[in-house]
Write a structure and sequence with these properties.
single chain, 381 residues, alpha/beta, nine-stranded mixed β-sheet
């Protein structure tokens, strides 16, 4: 990638020797022991990990995934000293609304493979031309093909400011933002950083964090109280504490062992997908999940993606001031979204709750997510 501020075309092309190295490392994995009958209670079971690793080694077709990703126009540019990779899929509809969509960890651009085309070309997917978007899907700095970050300070706010520059550089004066996971924090920050140009912000999951004030629990339903309880769940947040405190130490294992990278991410798909499903591949397409994991492996971004947590930890739950930009939220099973919490700091004009899907909505229930994004932005165009 060049060091200027121009926009350059990009194409994914992983060298064949990297694929062969992955297969050799998987074949040579030294598997740990485990307690009998522990299931998933101590982490990923060895037998499950062995089966998934063997499929990654012998059944998964990276070249097919790479070809699929390369059907989307891709580019790189340099913003604030960092290489930024992004998909830019312009709609055939001339009046389409630009929309920047942001993944989180352990996501990537692969997370959006099932939603980009229906969003950008709704007519070809049974929708209305008035719902069309010009879709911009960047890789967060330090993630995937944006490559490792090379200096400290790349927290979520800095990413949001970079997104504002990216949309300006693309010539978009008015646009929408959507995100899930870290993207559900970055997108509202973008709304604050570029409020003059952001038409609306849509997220799936949660919008805002509880402060711990007992008054926040007044009038909540049992389901909402249970959702807020996730913030005190140490089992659920253990991975984040590690990445926020010792990301470099963690990265030695993830960067050197594909089995480690595989299980570190797969566990999140097990824990965060629709709780109605027993295994990750029951909730998401296993090849799409492995495409996502492969991007982390081939780009060597275990350390730099984890650093996002280290950079951001001091601002977790910090007051951000009220945002008058219109916000919409889609809450899926297992998400922590509570409307009264969201409305404390955001102008929430749209709220949906669904009984199927989960944290990885773009992968699990793309139909519902697409519908919700279209519905939210319809009056804001």
């Amino acid at each position: 990638m060049n060091g200027d501020t121009q926009i350059h075309r990009f194409r994914i092309d992983i060298p064949q020797e990297r694929l062969e190295d992955l297969r050799a490392r998987l074949a040579a994995t030294r598997w740990p022991d485990e307690l009998p009958g522990a299931g998933w209670s101590y982490g990923v079971p060895v037998g499950y990990a062995q089966q998934l690793a063997e499929y990654w080694r012998t059944g998964f077709d990276w070249r097919a995934a790479e070809t699929r990703l390369n059907t989307f126009p891709q580019f790189t540019t340099r913003i604030d000293g960092q290489d930024i990779h992004f998909l830019h899929v312009r709609s055939p509809e001339p009046d389409a609304l630009p929309l920047i969509i942001t993944h989180g960890w352990p996501g990537s651009i692969a997370e959006f493979m099932k939603v980009i085309e229906p969003l950008s070309d709704p007519v070809a997917h049974g929708g209305e031309p008035a719902d069309a978007f010009h879709v911009v899907a960047p890789s967060i700095p330090g993630f995937g093909f944006s490559g490792p970050t090379t200096e400290p300070g790349w927290d979520l706010n800095r990413v949001a400011r970079a997104w504002a520059q990216l949309m300006s550089r693309l010539g978009y004066r008015r646009y929408g933002a959507h995100g899930g996971d870290s993207g559900a924090v970055i997108s509202p920050m973008l709304g604050r950083a570029d409020s003059a140009h952001v038409a609306g912000v849509h997220v799936n999951g949660a919008l805002g964090f509880p402060t711990g004030d007992p008054a926040e629990f007044e009038g909540l339903t049992p389901a909402e109280i249970a959702r807020l309880g996730q913030y005190q769940d140490s089992d659920r947040s253990g991975y984040a504490i590690i990445q926020a405190t010792r990301p470099q130490t963690l990265a030695f294992g993830l960067h050197d062992s594909p089995a480690a990278q595989l299980t570190w991410i797969t566990e999140k798909f097990k824990e965060w997908t629709d709780p109605a499903h027993e295994l990750p591949e029951d909730a998401v397409d296993v090849d799409q999940m492995l495409t996502d994991i492969s991007i982390y492996w081939f780009t060597g971004t275990a350390a730099s993606s984890a650093r996002l947590y280290k950079e951001t930890q001091e601002s977790w739950g910090a007051a951000s001031g009220y945002s008058a930009v219109p916000h919409g939220v889609a809450v899926f099973p297992g998400d922590a979204g509570v409307r009264s919490i969201a409305e404390r700091d955001h102008n929430v004009v749209h709220w949906s709750e669904y009984d199927r899907g989960g944290h990885f909505a773009a992968m699990e229930t793309p139909d519902l997510l697409i519908q919700d994004i279209r519905t939210f932005f319809r009056p804001l165009r």
